[in-house]
Structure formats: structure tokens, C-alpha cells
Amino acid sequence: MAGWEQLRAFNSAGYGPPVAVLAFDVAGRYAMHDTAQQQLAHRMSELALSLQDETDHPTTLNAIVDAVVDMVPAVTWAGISLVRGKAITSEAPSDPVVAELDELQTELGEGPCLTSIRAHHTVRIPDFGKPDQPWPRYAARAYELGARSLLARRLFVRREQLGALNLYSDETEAFTPDAEVLIDLFAQHAAVALAGATHEHHLNEALANRDILGQAKGILMQRDRLTGQRAFQLLVRASQDSNMKVVDVARWLVEETEKRAARQS
To answer: What is the pLDDT of residues 88-110, one digit of tens each?
Structure first.
């Protein structure tokens, strides 16, 4: 089985990308005999291990972008577009050019990165200077800013769509099929690391929210001599009346109580 098919089978089986990644030769086959390829494989393996240690979004995203600019040939700038509910946000751009082009896609409601996320496939623009671009206003601005080609690769794990890894080059036809193999490997590592950081973030947020709700309930129980259930019901009613989240009401109550205690001490 060819290397690429092996990777596909490995991923489809639910294992995700291997930590020790095989580099590829110019024919697109995996090999370990060349020193440069061994160095590449070693760097990819180190990256995978380092991403596993990251537990917050900003650090993880910056590590991904820095590594892809450093490791993928012909990449001039890079960034990540994330899905947040129905909104798509630009994260960790390596250059203001990336941020501006992401903002432009948001304003236009269309573009290669958005299409990569929404249509669930890789989008390639080999030459921004050619006529009949699918997104003419976006392509024209990208060309003005110095971008000549683009590859937008979606980031996903199993059924969870996370966003897109967006690579820009100041050269036309920059992303060869061989480079795309490396990009695909890299994107799989990035997606797994990002999913782990997302899970960790949500877990920490849930624990913090539970803690603040517990504090707020305790304040109401002690101050107004309420049961725990009645205190929570009071927080829910305040949330509805103020059009705020319950946890935000709880946080406000705790902060106000702490301020009052500080003034009295």
C-alpha cells in the first residue's frame, strides 16, 4: 500500500496521525534514507509532541502557524480561520496581510478560506493574477498585498469541523502536489492538537463556571437563608430579568460581595 493510502487508512480507522511521521520523497512516496527527509520527519515528530503539551487556544494556534511557515516550502504567510458557532474568526495570523484578507472574506461573506470550511474540502488558487477568479474582489486585493497563490486546508477530527489552515505564497503555482502531502500531514497534527486544546479549554471553563455558581449560591444561602435549590432559582430569575447568562449574574454577585467586604475591612 502506498504511503498516502496508508495514512488515509490510518486516519479513517480513528487513530489520527502518527506521532513519528514519515517524510516523503520527490515522487510523493515515504522514505527515510535521505538526511534532509529524516530531519523533516524528526521536526514533524517534535512538533506533534509539543502540540500535545499546549492546553490553551492562543499558544496552540501560534505554535501551529509558526511551524507551518517555518516547515512548509514556499509559504510566505499563514493563519487559521476558526468556526465559532455561526461565525468564522481569524486567529494567529503570521502577518497583517493574513488578517486583512481574512477580514475581507468576512465582509464579503465569501472567499477561499470560507469555502474550505463550509464545503469541507481543500481550496487552491495557483495564481491570483489570472482573470476569471472565483472571488474577483478578494483575489484583486490579495494580489495588491503581494499574495500570488493560496492553499486553504480544512482542519477537522472525525465529524468535528474546526476551521481552516490558510497558506499564502508570494510565488505563483507555489504549492506542488508533494508540498500538499506535507501540508495534509501537518493539518492532521494541527487538528488533533487543536481539538485537544478546545476540549481542555471547555473543561476548564466548565469547572470555573461551576465554581463561581457555587460561590454565588453560597452567598445567597447565607445572606437570605435560602436552600441551595432556591438560591439557584433566584440566580436563574435574575438572569432572565437582566438578559444575562446565569454564570455572568453569579460572577457579578460574587464580585460585588467581594468589593463590599474589602470596603468594610
So the answer is: 778 889 999 999 998 898 888 88
- Classify residue 164 by its DSSP letter: E
* CA–CA dist 67, 246 (Å, integer): 40
Q: What pTM was estimated for this model as a whole? A: 0.60
Which residues are CB-neighbours of 90 under 8 A, at least 6 positions away? 79, 80, 81, 98, 99, 102, 103, 106
Exposed e or buried b for every residue in 141-158, given b needs 16+ CB within 10 A?
Answer: bbeebebbbbbbbbbbbe
The answer to whether 110 and 88 have CB atoms below 8 angstroms apart is: no
Task: Please give the pLDDT value at position 173.
Answer: 94
pLDDT, position 47: 64
Q: How far is CA 241 from the centre of its chain?
A: 35
Three-state DSSP state, 32:
coil
Q: What share of the chain is helix, strand, coil (3-state, %, to 5)?
A: 60, 15, 25
Closest CA to 116 of 131, 132, 134: 134
Contact assessment for residue 85 and residue 229, using Cβ atoms and an 8 Å cutoff: no
Distance CA 196, CA 175 (A): 28
Residues 6+ apart with CB under 8 A from 131: none
**149-157 vs 87-91, strand pairing mode:** unpaired
CA distance 51 to 176: 26
Tell me, rounded to whole angstroms, the distance of Cα 200 from its chain centroid: 14
| pLDDT at residue 78, as a whole number | 94
What is 47-101 written as a DSSP string? HHHHHHH--SHHHHHHHHHHHHHHHSTT--EEEEEEEETTEEEEE--SSHHHHHH
Counting every residue written for the chain, the total comes to 265
The residue ranges of the chain whose pLDDT is under 70 are 1-57, 83-87, 156-162, 189, 193-206
